[in-house]
């Protein structure tokens, strides 16, 4: 059975034989001028590059590379202003910068220096240029530990070289995988960072820490909330697709109904088609924002409610499939410009996909499964052996995921020894179940945003924001202010 | 000028041109039957091997190796007893086991399981067997970060496989570099370890954190305490050695007087000779124990006092040099068995030296210098460039030390975010100045032992123990008991 596997900002189709994410699809538009909430052109920063060790953890390889970072100092009070660092995740840092309006909103009142640091192997921060993804050797330095060491080295260097920065307290921010990095940065380098805001960071998604069902069942909830019938229709659709897709004529009919760029030729294509649909439902849940936005695709406000419009009464057969087509069209063709829908659609920043695919095949092993009951997806199980075999097959070199490593190095569910981290999660977000939803200690604070999708709190303030995200941001600012005050109080 | 450079249990001569430690001398006797405080033969443990990843931080190299560990479960109460882990340092783990009597003393009352884990690249834990030290590639995995990951993986695995161990709280112990590792283990893996006793751990010895003068001036203090004249005589000796050593006849006379196995042929040899003397004074300070012991060499109680016997009145010229000879003879020939003294003497576990030499040339960059005023050594300065050049020269492959890395990854002097670490230091120990001598918080406790040399508190209880080390051990046990109680209190 197929597995639709998602992560954070990168959406991926995994094929029937568990070929992992590197074969995946990315549907990110790095910059979309039609997006009213995209900040590109409205914000001002400078771009710099910092010489980093390719390998922080060994001394044989002395290569260095240029890490990109963006810097905005127009709000900064060098005497008392903090440094706000965005710990870049699996994509072009300018895109994260443009979609993290919260930092731009609060920088003036905090008089903060903003730094957005790109994650190695993404965007323009390629350790080996166009050869970075060439083989096992060139990819060997794509790990979260190396990325955290990059952030630590960058900040340490900037603090010693940037006039005024020497004593500035640093606060880390990140969303999704970037949020995981922000929280891990505080775990591993509290000498560098006084606290971290980890927004929608599914830090418990490691296969051994969370039930594999978590993602799919949580992704189902906003559909049930929009309309229980909508979720039932989607649950029903898999059988109807299988039925229609089992014959040549049926596949032709499906291809035509869904206006697929490339017709479904066989049952393997039908499996890919279902994975692509699964992906779409998950993506839609992640970006179920209360106002028109274009985070993954240009979409209207509350897109799930809208998508469910065509699935609000019990359907089956041809009418059900037509309803499904209408719903996915909202996601892929809201602007009406798409000539056809491409189930193997590749985004504009394909390296981002490849990178996350590699990470998912090494240390970021996230188990996903579905039972079709607590969720609306076609049932499939999690099988690590098949998954691991798929990794090597897909990458064309031996690649063995190590599912135990992430939980060991990032403290599993035993975070009590940490401090000064905010874990915010929107309950509409499929990843929220793998996040920290209850405060662990007075300094490890969980903020739950019932009406929030994937790191809504990191986005710019918007008149359509639900009150709970407004309250979350207020609480976040207060806590961050507390970290900064404490820092200066203890400063000698 | 020469630099005598020491670390922990490994003593090293660095030559005049700053060739670093790998060329060094090790004077450790792994097991000495004449040593009344060595526990070999008196304690009972089993030896096991655990399959470890050679590279925890990358996925290209999938090699594994067998890490040795010693296990003693005869005191262990599986229901409530803790696990005491010794985080092995730069040498054979059986030797540390035999010289860490404190753990054997307290295991029965704590009903603890004892585990002594060997550090990779030392003892029998060779990632690539006899090729481990072959070249830059094979040595690439000799880092403290990899060693900590080994400890974490070992403990995690044992807790899941050893019946009764699943819920046992783990406390880490270590002395010298092993103490640094114990403290860093708590910083980086508090999910694995509830607390750490870091005995005589000079965690601030990194070149950028401590004045390079620290070691030499602290090494001088016990000599001054034994007899100010003794220290003055040693300070005076360098000029006399230089004078005598500047001529062939003088070198011959020196060689004969010091019964050197190999005569000093030229001024370079004289430089090595002085380094060897410097080493000796430092070593003697480290093992200035209150009872006869054989940690580095077989020695009487309070060996500095004894060595200073021949240097207690102001001397110069020939009588001074004779006094110096008598003093070093105490160190090298207390048993009277040595036929000659070898300034290039190699210990029985030379890999330990080589390993530390590599670590000192990569991440463990410890600056040492002397001014001849606050200390009794011949003045020399610290020069990183020369040091780094010496590393590559000595290892016959490019090897660039990275002095910034250690402070970054191990939190520099900014440890406030940590918890549950005891830093104990004996003030007689030359390394104490680079340790934590003041408590940082209620859970980061400094214990100072005025009459203690290098991790005296980790040794077996002895009737000749000064009261302050007895008190230190009592306090340590109480704090450790508190960690364990807290663990069970919060256990769900």
Keywords:
homodimer, 492 residues, alpha/beta, Rossmann fold, Four Helix Bundle (Hemerythrin (Met), subunit A), 2 domains, eight-stranded mixed beta sheet, two-stranded antiparallel ribbon, 10 strands, 12% strand, disordered N terminus
Describe the structure in your own words.
- The structure is a homodimer of 492-residue chains.
- Chain A is built from 15 helices and 10 strands.
- By secondary structure, chain A is α/β, with parallel strands linked by helices.
- Chain A has 2 domains: 4-208 and 409-491, Alpha/Beta hydrolase fold, catalytic domain (Rossmann fold); 214-366 and 368-383, Up-down Bundle (Four Helix Bundle (Hemerythrin (Met), subunit A)), CATH 1.20.120.
- The longest helix of chain A is centred in the C-terminal third of the chain and has 24 residues, at 467-490.
- Residues 1-36 and 346-351 of chain A have low confidence and may be disordered.
- The interface between A and B is large, with 46 and 46 residues.
């Amino acid at each position: 059975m197929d597995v639709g596997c998602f992560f954070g900002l990168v959406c991926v189709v995994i094929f029937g034989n568990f070929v992992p994410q590197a074969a995946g699809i990315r549907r990110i538009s790095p910059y979309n001028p039609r997006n009213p909430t995209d900040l590109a052109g409205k914000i001002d920063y400078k771009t710099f590059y910092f010489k980093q060790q390719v390998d922080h953890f060994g001394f044989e390889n002395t290569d260095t590379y240029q890490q990109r970072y963006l810097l905005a100092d127009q709000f900064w009070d060098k005497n008392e202003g903090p440094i706000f660092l965005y710990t870049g995740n699996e994509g072009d840092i300018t895109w994260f910068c443009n979609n993290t309006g919260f930092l731009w909103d609060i920088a003036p009142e905090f008089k903060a220096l903003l730094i957005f640091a790109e994650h190695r192997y993404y965007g323009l921060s390629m350790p080996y240029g166009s050869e970075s993804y060439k083989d096992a050797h060139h990819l060997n330095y794509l790990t979260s530990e190396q990325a955290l060491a990059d952030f630590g080295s960058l900040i340490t260097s900037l603090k010693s070289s940037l006039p005024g920065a020497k004593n500035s307290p640093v606060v880390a921010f990140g969303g999704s995988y970037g949020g995981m990095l922000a929280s891990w940065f505080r775990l591993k380098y509290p000498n560098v960072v006084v606290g971290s805001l980890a927004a929608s960071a599914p830090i418990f998604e490691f296969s051994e820490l969370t039930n594999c069902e978590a993602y799919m069942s949580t992704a189902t909830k906003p559909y049930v909330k929009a309309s229980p019938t909508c979720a039932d229709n989607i649950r029903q659709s898999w059988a109807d697709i299988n039925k229609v897709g089992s014959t040549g004529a049926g596949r032709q009919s499906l291809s035509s109904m869904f206006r697929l760029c490339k017709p479904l030729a066989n049952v393997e294509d039908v499996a890919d088609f279902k994975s692509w649909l699964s992906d779409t439902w998950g993506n839609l849940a992640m970006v179920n924002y209360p106002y028109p936005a274009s985070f993954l695709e240009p979409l209207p406000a509350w897109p799930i409610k809208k998508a469910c419009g065509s699935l609000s009464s019990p359907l089956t057969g041809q009418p059900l499939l037509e309803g499904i087509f209408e719903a996915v069209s909202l996601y892929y063709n809201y602007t009406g410009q798409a000539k056809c829908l491409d189930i193997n659609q590749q985004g504009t920043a394909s390296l981002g996909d490849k990178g996350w695919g590699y990470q998912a095949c090494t240390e970021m092993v996230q188990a996903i499964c579905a039972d079709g009951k607590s969720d609306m997806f076609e049932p499939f199980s999690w099988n690590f052996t098949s998954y691991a075999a798929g990794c090597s097959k897909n990458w064309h070199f031996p690649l063995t995921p190590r599912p135990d490593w992430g939980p060991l190095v990032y403290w599993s569910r035993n975070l009590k020894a940490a401090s000064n981290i905010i874990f915010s999660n929107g309950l509409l977000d499929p990843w929220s179940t793998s996040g920290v939803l209850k405060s662990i200690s007075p300094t490890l604070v969980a903020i739950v945003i019932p009406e929030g999708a994937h790191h809504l709190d990191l986005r710019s303030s918007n008149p359509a924001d639900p009150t709970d995200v407004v309250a979350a941001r207020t609480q976040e600012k207060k806590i961050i202010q507390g970290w900064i005050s404490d820092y200066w109080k203890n400063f000698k």
